[in-house]
Every structure is written in structure tokens, then in C-alpha cells.
Design brief:
With 284 residues, the protein is α/β, with parallel strands linked by helices. Helix content is 37%, strand content 16%.
């Protein structure tokens, strides 16, 4: 079995690929797509095949999927990029990758998405059966483009597509936890962020990739304990601004997801059920 992984130089991909390689059985191979040959070298040293090129290049896609049995599309463009780039990578390139995979006879396609595709909250944890409701403070080109990519990929007949929706990902030296203050500094004190450690994101994606008989299924991946804006400041060792206590949370259930499906169907259990468990284990 040959698995192609895209987005391998991002925060999620660079941590996912070594875990995929580490648990590979005899005869199982991993191929990565990178734009910069130098950034592919660490993966090659671990035993991965490397294809150099841009995800938005149709010829490159053809080479990348040739002979592959599965694709894990981790690639994403967000946080400060122009809207045009977000659409080009998150929707257009993802859909073209799906078409290339279908044409090449790829059997499984894992689309890595985001819990932000739900849009506004529902007054309870969001489930995979909830439709997208655009709007809210976190809506924009990134979640909208990811939502459209999901819909178009899942509609492709003949391709076994399964989707993993990620939370706010952190851990193992990832700067995301510190970067969370870019938003949390403008939130209400009680506003929450649903998180997931890289160990558990990789665990969830591996379960989605390897499980038989789940074509068309969507799975939320997250930990058990969303944290407040106050806690995010404390975890970063930063004084909590007084103005946080003067604000109201406009949507208390924004991006707070249920993990019941992935637990029941795929046996997912977070290694780090909270950011505090990861902190105490020295895994931040």
C-alpha cells in the first residue's frame, strides 16, 4: 500500500508523516509532496518517497498520485493569506487532487478539514450531522473554502472519501498555543477554544485512514476539555487583560465539537484529554 500525504511541511503534516512511517507494516510505503526539495530531505531520511512540486500544478498531481492506494490531504492555507490563495489551495487544489486520485485508481482519500466549517454554534457540542451555518467571528475564506472542498469531494462517485475535522492543534513545540493570544486577547473571559494535541490529531487521522467501510463518513477530532480565554493567557504565562471580564461571549458553542462518533466507531481516545495533561507530561 502506498499512501500520498500533502501539506507535509506544515505544523500538522510534519508531525503526522513520521507517525505514519513509524507504524507502517512491511510493504507499506509513504510518499510526500513538497514544494522545496530541501524540506523533503527529513522525510526521505525516514524512508518516505518525495515528489517535488506545487499542489496547484495538474502535472505534479498526476505524478504524485501515480500508483498510490490512499491520499491524506493535509494541505491548507490560512491565517493571514489572501482569500484568493485560501480558495486556490483549500478548495480548488483539493478538488483537483481528488479528481486526479479518482483517475489514478486511488482507493481511499482522507480530506483533512476544520471544525470551523460548522460556522455558528448550536447551543450544544457540534456533531458531524450538523450542516454548515456561515457566520460568526471565525468565519471567512478558510472555513468556507474547506466546507466547499468537503462537499465537492464527498460528491465524487467512485472515490472513497472520508473527512477528519480538526480542532485548534497544539503541542510538541508548535507555536499555535502562543499564537492563540492573537484571538483570545480580544475575547470574553469565558470564551472557549476546543483543542487537540498533535499526538491525538495523528491518532485520529490514522484511524480514519485505516478503518474499512467508512466511505463518506465525517469525524470530529478533539480533546475532552475546551479552554477559556483566561486559561489560554495563564498557559502562556501572560497576565489576563482586565477588559476580558467586561466582554460577553457572542457564541458560547462556536467550534465546540462532539467526538462521540470517532470514539464509538473508531475507538479514538485522546492520549492528552486536556492541555493540562499535555503540559504535565512535558508535551507542549
Amino acid at each position: 500500500m502506498l499512501t500520498l500525504v500533502t501539506g507535509t511541511t506544515g505544523q500538522v503534516g510534519r508531525r503526522f508523516v513520521p507517525r505514519l512511517l513509524a507504524q507502517a507494516r512491511p510493504g507499506e510505503r509513504v510518499r510526500v509532496l513538497v514544494r522545496d526539495p530541501a524540506r523533503g530531505e527529513p522525510f526521505a531520511e525516514l524512508g518516505a518517497e518525495v515528489v517535488v512540486g506545487d499542489l496547484r500544478d495538474a502535472d505534479v498531481l498526476g505524478k504524485a498520485v501515480a500508483g498510490a492506494d490512499a491520499v491524506v490531504n493535509v494541505a491548507a492555507s490560512f491565517r493571514g493569506v489572501p482569500d484568493e490563495e485560501a480558495w486556490a489551495v483549500n478548495r480548488d487544489a483539493a478538488v483537483e487532487l481528488g479528481r486526479a486520485a479518482l483517475a489514478a485508481g486511488v482507493r481511499r482519500f482522507v480530506q483533512v478539514s476544520t471544525g470551523l466549517v460548522y460556522g455558528t454554534g448550536r447551543g450544544r457540542p457540534l456533531t458531524e450531522d450538523d450542516e454548515s451555518r456561515p457566520g460568526g467571528a471565525m468565519w471567512g475564506a478558510y472555513p468556507e473554502s474547506k466546507a466547499q472542498a468537503e462537499r465537492e469531494l464527498l460528491a465524487m462517485e467512485g472515490l472513497d472519501v472520508r473527512v477528519g475535522r480538526l480542532p485548534f492543534v497544539y503541542g510538541e513545540g508548535d507555536p499555535h498555543l502562543a499564537q492563540s493570544l492573537m484571538w483570545a486577547g480580544n475575547w470574553a473571559a469565558t470564551q472557549r477554544l476546543h483543542m487537540g494535541h498533535h499526538v491525538d490529531v495523528a491518532q485520529g487521522l490514522l484511524r480514519i485512514l485505516q478503518a474499512p467501510g467508512i466511505a463518506g463518513r465525517i469525524y470530529n477530532i478533539a480533546d475532552d476539555a475546551p479552554v477559556t480565554a483566561v486559561e489560554l493567557h495563564q498557559l502562556n504565562g501572560v497576565e489576563v487583560p482586565e477588559e476580558l471580564y467586561e466582554r460577553a461571549d457572542p457564541d458560547p458553542w462556536l467550534a465546540i465539537t462532539s467526538t462521540e462518533r470517532i470514539r464509538r466507531e473508531l475507538g479514538y481516545r485522546p492520549v492528552y484529554p486536556s492541555v493540562y495533561a499535555a503540559r504535565d507530561a512535558g508535551a507542549l
